[in-house]
Amino acid sequence: MKKMFAYDIQLKTIKVSDKWKLDAIIVSEDMFLECNVLRGSRGTACTDCSANGEENRSSIDKTYAHIDTLGTPGYLSGASYDLMTDVKLTANAPVAGKSPETNLTINSEGISKVSSVKWYDGSKELTDKDKFTTGKTYTAKFTLVPDEAYMFAADTKVTVNGIEAKPTSDEFCREVEYTVNFKAKEPASSADSKSSSNSGTSSAPKKDSSSKSESKSGTSSTPKKDSSSKPESKSGTSSAPKKDSSSKSESKSGTSSAPKKDSSSKSESKSGTSSTPKKDSSSKPDNNKLMNGDVNLDAKINVTDIAMVASHIKGIKALEGDGLANADVNDDEKVNVTDIAMIAAHIKGIKPLI
User: Fold this and answer.
1) pTM for the whole thing?
2) Whole-number pLDDT of residue 172
3) Range in 73-82, 127-136, 339-348 the model is least confident about
4) How far apart are CA 303 and CA 348, in angstroms?
5) Which of 4, 84, 150, 242 is the most buried if burial means most Cβ atoms within 10 Å?
6) Residues 18 and 94 in one domain
7) In a shared domain, residues 219 and 311
8) Domain limits for position 332
């Protein structure tokens, strides 16, 4: 094939099939001599050796007698390809404490094959026994192969979870390797799915009040009245008599009783768990008396009280004494989300606490 296309100054395109090979070409000296307007499918121009010196004679022999691609320039054109402009992929991003996952999902047309993802910590390839660390950056590496009708271009944009990936080289058009970096995130907090007692409830004393203030304005300042009657313990735990009181609470279990300080009422426990009695409010000013829902004892019922109850349920800051007693607005000896809902309904004027 010596001087096969030589001096064809009008030759612009030479098309061959994908099965074209150079094996049968033995002699190819000056094969493309002075084919100055010849271009490959990606625009590679045939270079005339007379303009570039004798040392570049390989530019017009069979060296470039192949299909012009991104990594292997040539003077021939193959089948017609659509250049890919945008490829979107989805991967399982690193989560602290978890092992690498290799799945990669294709969300765009034109990709015939995608390799599994390999994760790296620097130069070290991770295995399924390794764990990600919070805040550390890891590299995902994968290979893409386009469909027969498509070809990668230098400006093809490949993204994984919206983050742009970069090719490791520009030597291939039919199979390209990409890398993308991710920073390991903390796992989802489990705080919202558990309470301080793992059951979402907390034991609290009941309040003995015959009347409670009602409010539709978002706050309430009317104190609760003290009740002169006392309940008896049904759990078998000891109950205590009041000081300076003509009546006593008896324990059905027959266990010993101990005196209680200045209290005209006491809490009863039906579950067998310990309870905290309320303090006598008769010695406080009117605006500081015990009031259902007034957790911070400021003689008002508002969102601050809700926040304190929520903090108690999650085990962040436990309520004590009168605040704990006032948090149990439905008198079921538990402080939970039901009490929060009732306080919220009171504040919004939907259903006042009584």
Assistant:
1) 0.37
2) 56
3) 73-82
4) 10
5) 84
6) no
7) yes
8) 195-230+267-354
